[in-house]
Amino acid sequence: MVQSVQRAARILRELSTRGPRLGVTELAERIGVSKPTVHALLQTLESEGLVRQEKGTSKYLLGMALLSMGNAYLETQELRSHSVAWANTLAERTGEAVWVAVLDDAGHILVVHHAFRPQSGVQIPDLGASVPWNTSALGKALVSFLPQQRQKALLEGGLARLTGNSVVDPALLAGQLEGARQTGYALEDQESTLGEASIASPVFDRSGDAAGAIGIIGPVERLLSEPDRQRHAVAVRDVATLLSRELGAGRGVAWRVTD
């Protein structure tokens, strides 16, 4: 492992998750290296457009070059390229906004596609949004089908609390993951944003692994009140199954439906 590259990557991660503006001293303390070393790394990153220095404060922010890299990642993301049409189908079927997401190394779900709610007013695109896995139905649906060792690490690795409804008890969350494995979908009730809920199902690739998740997000009263909750859950699960088959997953990945 190249130490300088690792340190540069940590600087970018700190700016993306702890920023948006950090000075040399703050970054040096966070990554545990000397200020001259951090300053040299920042100068190199700045020359490549990966960070920029703010006038007036001398603090650093992420650079514009990262945007083109992010767009390039999305363009090569197989799940996203296959999910566009299916996300639109799910949005039309449920009347709600649809997110498609993958899990990053930090334990957050990353939104790689966002289909707007049909026949609605102004909506803000959430493409690129990052949310702790335990506060999202997408995260729960995806993690519920990960290998046990990875799942255990996520449960024991610190659970985020974004609202008073966020589930931070590992045992309770493990029970929710088992429920998602049984039914094929996971629920989130105001655990990320007050007033909002989500319903999501995992999406599998040709190897049979969970490649991501697809789900709907919207006001809690529209998503979780019966009989809409059950109707939406079936729609999400159906579309996730069809998307999985388009990605090459066999019928053997289907869950045991008990609801």
Explain this structure to me?
The protein is an alpha+beta fold. It has two domains: 63 residues, Winged helix-like DNA-binding domain superfamily/Winged helix DNA-binding domain (Arc Repressor Mutant, subunit A, Orthogonal Bundle), CATH 1.10.10; 177 residues, Beta-Lactamase (2-Layer Sandwich). The protein has ten helices and eight strands. The protein has a six-stranded antiparallel β-sheet with strand order 5-4-3-8-7-6, with helices on both faces. A two-stranded antiparallel sheet has the order 1-2.
Summarize the structure.
With 259 residues, this protein is an alpha+beta fold.
Oligomeric description of these chains: single chain
In CATH, the topology of the largest domain is named Beta-Lactamase
Q: Regarding CATH, which class of the largest domain?
A: Alpha Beta
Whole-number radius of gyration?
Answer: 20 Å
Give the overall average pLDDT: 87
Coarse morphology: globular
β-strand percent reads: 15-25%
What is the string of helix and strand elements?
Answer: HHHEEHHEEEHHHEEEHH
Extended strand count: 8
- Identify the CATH homologous superfamily of the largest domain: GAF domain
